[in-house]
Specification:
single chain; mainly beta; Nuclear Transport Factor 2, Chain: A; Beta-galactosidase, Chain A, domain 5; 3 domains; six-stranded antiparallel beta sheet; 10 helices; 36% strand; binds copper (II) ion
């Protein structure tokens, strides 16, 4: 993730060159990308959403219209084009949909209320203000009309509404200035770099991605570790162990300066003192990565073919056509009595709205809030790394999904579009969805009198976000009995650093010159559950071992040791700060206490985590900006001004974030029979190992949360599925099966597997 600053902000010209290269490749790819198969069996049946999607992201036309309207001098924002803006200018940093309030959306969806207004959230960096600042504006309604106006959204949704200018991401005007300072610094010690690292300083020899370090926004002191410029993914191992910290705080670039150089665990506060020590022979040279032999670091086939592995691997396909429907225009999906609308945010990625099962809303919204990774290490890069990926454009990091490999063979793909440096940009094939075979029954029983088994299937909606080095696969999976699962898996490259011989307390050596450091991934979701209605409560079940005595026991019998359940409905928000019990001694339900099933239990969903961690370290680098990750889950009263646990600028203001999540529950409101939001994290503690090279594995680095019906109904909810057999013994004792009239032979051939050719980027 280290370099991802540059993907958005192009901090160094060398990295820009790298990305220019990608763009050239992408251009060729667009011409030669294979046409997708037209097999009708892999096409979803035609379908219309019941209503136009009020959550659909802003179209490129809408983005252009908002930009033009804001740039008009009549709005008095004095905006310059981002490419031309200097440090003392104002420019638009981002534009995206501001989703309608839940109240408006529900009125529209459920009660024939009016179509909610289309609104835009806009970040404007105002370098021309005194003091310079960053504004979060609400612009609308759209399309532009005499009613369109600009409101201060920051005051409504942030706890610290004044966002300091130092929290901004970079832009071309700043990149140019910064490159000058970085070049002057390393240029002054070029001879020493040539001797110590093997190459003299130049923008083509070294990459200099920045690690932000802003505290409360009163300063801007990023760290740099020099990396050799590589022409492929081996760049993620090309760290040199040579660090610098700069002061880029002031709008006046003549005040920008070097704060520190660090090499071989020593520090210097000027290039002169560094050169003095170098010339005096006081600096020990460390061996560097071979830049010629990098195959070990790259994805490619290596080794002999395993027995029968020259044959294609198994696939899932639907023998008589797809069993889900997609309205691609309105981004509305149905599958086996489930339905939902899709949305996409360049900050937060794919979002689900109005998730219904058998006609009843289970969740109003399910969306990513933030993805943190918090490192520990012995050098400035690893010790100072604490990312909040939303600020690095997690949503815009969504990458094209590679057919036949990243999703099921017959998956349906959707595109996303977002505002990118002054214009709308489309990324194709970035959301996939498919029904998949679980390869095991949902349920089953077999005995001599009767038997049965129901085929296991699930519907998965998937995207992969590549944030610099890492690839996060995020799946929302629906099951036919009413469960929803949110899973995050990680692959891609480790953030490594230069190998430190004394670094075993933090690091694992993974190559001749690099090591990976311990870090936590915690990925937080908003799950606005509406189980059996909008008013819900949280119920905790505690399981303890007790000594029991009963009247049917003899007097001389010892008390019976056994488990016992107690139940409590939680009263206030602070009680619903949840850490899962490692041995399932406690579990939590969210449901409607006023809506009971036939046996008198509140209709509920159970929260079922699978291998989850939470953040355990806060301090200067990650503090008030990631409090949503300090526990496994929280339940708070749903509020329109508490829409998101984080914000774009939380990443760059650890000490004074725009959104301070503790404020969501600090007022300790009643959570009994209220409209509630569950903020739940998944994640894993990543101790790197040799097998993380070249890439971390999705199948191992994974975590999930499942939400399942718990007394929600009177019986389990897959009994209406026909893809099941039921058997009853006849007079002679043979189990005679009934397969419910399903023709498993099917009418479609297996999906075509066309060569991929070149890939889009
Ligand atoms: Cu990791």
């Amino acid at each position: 993730m280290y370099i991802k600053v540059d993907t958005r902000a192009s901090l160094s010209s060398t990295i820009m060159m790298l990305f220019s290269l990608y763009c050239i490749v992408a251009g060729v790819a667009a011409l030669t990308h294979q046409v997708r198969q037209s097999d009708t069996c892999a096409t979803t049946p035609a379908h219309r959403a019941p209503k136009p999607n009020p959550f659909k992201e802003l179209s490129n036309d809408e983005l252009t219209e908002v930009r033009s309207w804001l740039m008009d001098p009549k709005q008095s924002l004095r905006l310059k084009d981002i490419d031309e803006a200097g440090l003392k200018d104002n420019y638009i940093d981002s534009i995206e949909l501001w989703h309608p309030s839940k109240a408006d959306a529900v009125k529209y969806l459920d009660q024939d209320g009016p179509v909610p207004d289309r609104m835009a959230k806009v970040h404007v960096v105002s370098g021309a203000d005194n003091p310079p600042t960053i504004k979060t504006l609400l612009v609308g309604p759209l399309p532009v009309s005499p009613d369109t106006k600009i409101d201060n959204l920051a005051e409504k949704i942030y706890h610290n509404a004044e966002i300091p200018w130092n929290a901004k991401t970079s832009h071309p005007g700043e990149d140019r200035e910064r490159t000058n300072v970085i070049s002057a610094t390393f240029g002054a010690i070029s001879d020493a770099l040539n001797d110590l690292l093997g190459l003299p300083w130049s923008l083509s020899n070294y990459d200099t991605g920045l690690l932000p370090n802003n505290g409360d926004g009163s300063f801007r002191h990023p760290w740099v570790e020099l990396m050799f410029t590589m022409d492929n993914s081996s760049m993620w191992f090309a760290y040199t162990g040579f660090f610098a910290q700069f002061d880029f705080s002031d709008q006046d670039t003549s005040k920008w300066k070097l704060r520190k150089l660090v090499y071989d665990n020593k520090k210097w506060t000027s290039t002169e003192s560094f050169m003095d020590d170098y010339k005096a022979g006081k600096i020990t040279k460390s061996p560097q990565m071979s830049r010629n032999d990098t195959q070990w670091a790259l994805r490619s086939v290596k080794g002999n073919t395993r027995d029968l592995e020259d044959l294609p691997s198994p696939i899932t396909y639907s023998p008589s056509g797809l069993r889900y429907r997609v309205d691609k225009d309105e981004r509305y999906v149905t599958w086996l009595d489930w339905s939902f609308y899709l949305s996409y945010s360049p900050e937060q990625g794919v979002m689900l709205y109005d998730v219904k099962f058998k006609g009843e809303r289970i969740a109003y919204e399910i969306s990513l809030q933030e993805a943190i990774s918090n490192y520990g290490g012995g050098d400035p890069l690893q010790a100072m790394t604490a990312y909040l990926d939303r600020g690095f454009g997690m949503g815009t990091g969504i990458t094209p999904l590679v057919r036949n490999y990243d999703c099921s063979h017959e998956a349906t793909y959707l595109d996303v579009n977002f505002y990118d440096y002054g214009a709308g940009r489309v990324k194709n094939d970035t959301i996939c969805m498919f029904e998949r075979d679980l390869q095991k029954p949902i349920s089953r029983h077999y005995q001599s009198t009767d038997a049965g088994s129901t085929r296991g299937v699930a519907f998965e909606l998937r995207s992969i976000y590549t944030v610099g080095n890492y690839d996060y696969l995020i799946s929302f999976t629906l099951f036919p009995e009413g469960s929803i699962e949110i899973e995050v898996d990680a692959s891609g490259y480790l953030q490594t650093t230069y190998y430190n011989p004394n670094g075993d307390a933090w690091d694992t050596r993974v190559s001749a010159t690099s090591s990976g450091s311990i870090h936590d991934h915690v990925i937080t979701f908003k799950i606005d559950l509406d189980v059996a209605g909008e008013k819900n409560s949280v119920e905790r079940r505690d399981i303890e071992v007790v000594d029991s005595r009963f009247d049917w026991m003899d007097d001389d019998e010892a008390p019976l040791k056994q488990k016992k359940i107690s139940s409590s409905v939680l009263d206030k928000e602070k009680e619903a700060v949840i850490d899962w019990d490692g041995n399932s001694g406690k579990f939590w339900l969210i449901g409607n206490q006023d809506a009971k099933n036939s046996f008198g239990y509140p209709r509920s969903y159970r929260l079922m985590p699978r291998s989850v961690i939470h953040n355990i370290v806060d301090g200067d680098k990650m503090d008030k900006n990631a409090k949503f990750a300090d526990h496994h889950a929280f339940v708070t009263v749903n509020k329109d001004n508490e829409r998101s646990a984080s914000s774009f600028y939380n990443a760059f203001l650890p000490k004074k974030p725009p959104v301070d999540f503790t404020k969501f529950y600090e007022d300790d409101e009643s959570i009994k029979q209220q409209d509630l939001t569950l903020w739940a994290s998944v994640g894993f503690r990543h101790v790197p190992r040799a097998e993380d090279v070249p890439n971390t594995l999705f199948i191992e680095a994974k975590s999930a949360l499942m939400l399942s019906p718990f007394n929600y109904a009177d019986e389990e909810l897959s009994r209406d599925l026909r893809n099941a057999y039921y058997a009853v013994a006849d007079d002679e004792g043979y189990l005679v099966t009934d397969e419910n009239g399903i023709n498993h032979e099917g009418t479609c051939s297996t999906p075509a597997f066309e060569p991929l050719g070149t890939l889009p980027y």
